[in-house]
Write a structure and sequence with these properties.
Blueprint: H1 3-47, H2 51-64, H3 69-81, H4 85-98, H5 103-122
Organism: Dyella lutea
Keywords: Membrane, Transmembrane, Transmembrane helix
Protein name: Tetratricopeptide repeat protein
Length: 124
């Protein structure tokens, strides 16, 4: 291989790497955009107090992505607000396993639910 062929080979390799990198960035941008839209949908439903719809969308999301933290957290909050304490507790526990960095927030939610469940059992 002479010097010109080597340079052409090097340029072709560099060009290929650049094209692949741009394609990866494009795909990442599209996926990130989809995730951001879904997260915004959860937030909008929560703010609009459309809890039944929020629970349904959370369940649908979790059927495809069992560890989706946003679906677990927003769904759990909606379940808790609707009085489905056991399901909310289970979803918060799953969120804690999925996202240990949120331990402090999730533990607060779990403490609240356990207190409500205890009060409910004492009232029987």
């Amino acid at each position: 291989m002479d010097a010109i062929e080597e340079r052409l080979w090097t340029l072709t390799t560099v060009l290929f790497v650049v094209v692949v990198a741009q394609a990866v960035l494009l795909v990442m941008g599209l996926v990130g955009s989809r995730v951001a839209r879904r997260k915004q949908k959860f937030l909008d439903l929560w703010r609009q107090n459309r809890l039944a719809e929020l629970i349904d969308i959370s369940r649908a999301t979790l059927s495809k992505e069992p560890n989706n933290t946003d679906a677990l957290l927003y769904g759990a909050k909606a379940l808790r607000t609707n009085g489905h304490l056991k399901d909310a507790r289970l979803w918060f526990e799953r969120a804690l396993q999925s996202e240990p960095a949120l331990r402090r927030i999730i533990e607060g939610e779990l403490d609240f639910i356990r207190k409500k469940e205890s009060e409910s059992q004492q009232g029987r």
